[in-house]
């Protein structure tokens, strides 16, 4: 896990060295002396290897350097305020998406091979196939521009989170619906479900208490890829809805050659992801004891 | 039943020569053991199963049409997709046979009135832009064809490279085993921890955006899942009798990999490729949409979406056209991939 993060930091750092343009291209014409002075100030005059060492050392204490775009603003400070909206949006999307997906999956599995099943499958395919930024624009068009029931963009309270959350939730919904359906179909044909039915439990009781519990365990493995997908999605969705999150900052910093910010966001994203995958691994072992016995402690 | 007098058999029957008659075969084993249907090869069998899947067949036909059109329009495009014409900017669609329908007759709603934009722009009667023109006066339909072509091209090249690298890596790792395998798997583990999106974006900020760099950016991360699948399958096949037999007969490892293992995992590879194509299309569109994709005048579905989004509030169709095309292509590939997976491996289906 730490190796992965270190590798990412290193790759990012050296790729950044290859980037075209200097941090000052966006500013007014500077004399060579001023540039030399600015370089010295930000340590850019030292050899690359020394810069790399300083960079890694600072990284350990959470210092990502100073943003090139916003004068004298530490990147860390710039990003801290932006984590909130991104995390909130991601959490809402994943909760909403998986809940709806689970519900769809259950219904589809219970009414297997009827029109309900077909409809649920169709929704899952649409959710998986249509890119989330197309969804985002579609939602914006219908609910904000035509019906005018929800705000079109910005970030001023819960109402503003609804459309981006739905747009982001589409692919988790589709994935979990498909997954739960397959699992449930299998579980619902097992002996213990037959027994539960024979004891006279209602269909829903059987589905939720006996079927769902056993289908949920594998769903946890899906959380890792889902988190990756959400991250990708948040980049565009935050831009479309003008949400002050990390994704929006990332795109902005790419456009303005703001190296420290690009590096910081890259590392932040990777760290988040590695963290989520670790949590998933741990959770899986916690819930399903069979995994613990066979698997070692790999992170 | 009518009794027949043997002394009085009709002439007609008497004429039939005796050797026309043969004793009935009392043993029916042969008949019972006969295989009623012709034997099918693996591919024929899969094809038969695929044909039963309506969604997959329809997708296949759709994709065939889309690919055919996007190739044929290299030579016969309604207009030049990159030719700009300042006089003809933002024209609404006009289709000759649909004159009576608003929205397809070259009129647009300007301040509550329907105005014939073509007349305003002095477009000759025989020049029609079936899907209108964009902000630089380029024909949207021609650009759509070009965009689809380039998006598909990128996806196919990326998928092909994924396969080449992934299969080679997976085969080597799985077949050699031992320490080589361990090292190769550790490398994969570390690589897969890096979010692919981050790598893609970094690659594109460093290298000039173009078809090649986009393909490379996608391949760098996407071959990993292919390598894993191929390795797992190779491990499964490695100890089977036919491989052991080949080994005993002195076949080289390379030959075993190519002649014995590869054909047996081809279905898995094809299915994985079919899933990687839509994801490549998605990432291309995604990168172009956030402005890291191809540079004009080259068009891809992503850049068309990006351009359409800029004028979305006033000319929504510039966004909807590529959006619908992209979605249809993605849905078709996904459905076809699902169908192929079920066709190749019917056990997977519950």
TrEMBL record, chain B:
<keyword id="KW-0653">Protein transport</keyword>
<keyword id="KW-1003">Cell membrane</keyword>
<dbReference type="GO" id="GO:0055085">
    <property type="term" value="P:transmembrane transport"/>
</dbReference>
<dbReference type="InterPro" id="IPR025966">
    <property type="entry name" value="OppC_N"/>
</dbReference>
<dbReference type="GO" id="GO:0015031">
    <property type="term" value="P:protein transport"/>
</dbReference>
<dbReference type="GO" id="GO:0015833">
    <property type="term" value="P:peptide transport"/>
</dbReference>
<feature type="transmembrane region" description="Helical">
    <location>
        <begin position="187"/>
        <end position="205"/>
    </location>
</feature>
<dbReference type="Pfam" id="PF00528">
    <property type="entry name" value="BPD_transp_1"/>
</dbReference>
<protein>
    <submittedName>
        <fullName>Peptide ABC transporter permease</fullName>
    </submittedName>
</protein>
<feature type="transmembrane region" description="Helical">
    <location>
        <begin position="150"/>
        <end position="175"/>
    </location>
</feature>
<feature type="transmembrane region" description="Helical">
    <location>
        <begin position="55"/>
        <end position="76"/>
    </location>
</feature>
<feature type="transmembrane region" description="Helical">
    <location>
        <begin position="314"/>
        <end position="337"/>
    </location>
</feature>
<feature type="transmembrane region" description="Helical">
    <location>
        <begin position="211"/>
        <end position="230"/>
    </location>
</feature>
<dbReference type="Pfam" id="PF12911">
    <property type="entry name" value="OppC_N"/>
</dbReference>
<feature type="transmembrane region" description="Helical">
    <location>
        <begin position="261"/>
        <end position="294"/>
    </location>
</feature>
<dbReference type="InterPro" id="IPR000515">
    <property type="entry name" value="MetI-like"/>
</dbReference>
<dbReference type="GO" id="GO:0005886">
    <property type="term" value="C:plasma membrane"/>
</dbReference>
<keyword id="KW-1133">Transmembrane helix</keyword>
<feature type="domain" description="ABC transmembrane type-1">
    <location>
        <begin position="148"/>
        <end position="337"/>
    </location>
</feature>
<dbReference type="InterPro" id="IPR050366">
    <property type="entry name" value="BP-dependent_transpt_permease"/>
</dbReference>
<comment type="similarity">
    <text>Belongs to the binding-protein-dependent transport system permease family. OppBC subfamily.</text>
</comment>
<keyword id="KW-0813">Transport</keyword>
<keyword id="KW-0812">Transmembrane</keyword>
<keyword id="KW-0472">Membrane</keyword>
<keyword id="KW-0571">Peptide transport</keyword>
<dbReference type="InterPro" id="IPR035906">
    <property type="entry name" value="MetI-like_sf"/>
</dbReference>
